[in-house]
């Protein structure tokens, strides 16, 4: 049995939007990144929505089950999210990415407010624990890894923690995959769900990534595996 989750990070007109597809299985590795794409800059939002919906419908026809679509609801994402909700027949979740520390859900479960640090932490631990695999031959795979390695964790004087791409780097692919992984994992029922332990401690200080992974599943860092 497999399920699919589509992450859609919607960009400002001058930046990239990104689409990803996570396949979830009941055996390890639990998650596989099957599709990753950056849309050309300045692609009209209606065209972006059509491409995402067409991809979701294609997955539905192939696997006889429509994927869950997680859409970045932040900033320009709000009106685009409305287009998606009216044009896609499957489940659509809107996400407001915040700089806070608490996850909240509104609108009968349709809208989620999720801290950026939580999204990135879950993705990084999934990769390091070996629960998420990526095909090295997939287009944009290397760009995705470069984006992820370029993230910086910062703690200000008040103890507030932020995580963002260093300098003027992009994070569209990382955010797209993070959205898909977040919802894929949220619907899991695996005995080792503790792998999502955040890499941020409760007092706001950074935690070594490998200390956040249970010792029985800890592994050395590895290159992207071939599937």
What is the helix tally? 5
Helical coverage, percent range: 25-40%
Question: Percent of residues in beta strands?
Answer: 25-35%
What's the number of structural domains?
A: 1
Radius of gyration: 17 Å
- The coarse overall form would be globular
Which fold name fills CATH's third level, the topology? Nucleotidyltransferase, domain 5
Mean pLDDT: 77
Question: What is the distance, rounded to the nearest whole angstrom, between the alpha carbons of the first and last residues?
Answer: 18 Å
SSE sequence, one letter per element? EEEHEHEEEHEHEEH
Q: Quaternary status of these chains?
A: single chain
Return the CATH class: Alpha Beta
Corresponding CATH architecture: 2-Layer Sandwich
Would you identify the regions where 5 or more consecutive residues have pLDDT less than 50?
Answer: 188-227
Structure class: alpha/beta
Number of E-type strands:
10
Q: Strands of the biggest beta sheet: in what spatial order?
A: 6-7-5-4-1-2-3-8
Question: How does the major sheet shape up?
Answer: 8 strands, mixed
Describe the overall structure.
The protein is α/β, with parallel strands linked by helices. Helices cover 30% and strands 26% of the residues. The protein has five helices and ten strands; from the N terminus they run E-E-E-H-E-H-E-E-E-H-E-H-E-E-H. The strands form two sheets. Strands 6-7-5-4-1-2-3-8 form an eight-stranded mixed β-sheet, with helices on both faces. Strands 9-10 form a two-stranded antiparallel ribbon. Helix 1 crosses helix 2 (77-87) and helix 3 crosses helix 5 (172-186). The longest helix is centred in the N-terminal third of the chain and has 19 residues, at 45-63. The chain is globular and about 40 Å long. It starts with a strand and ends in a 41-residue tail after the last helix. Mean pLDDT is 77; it is low at 188-227.
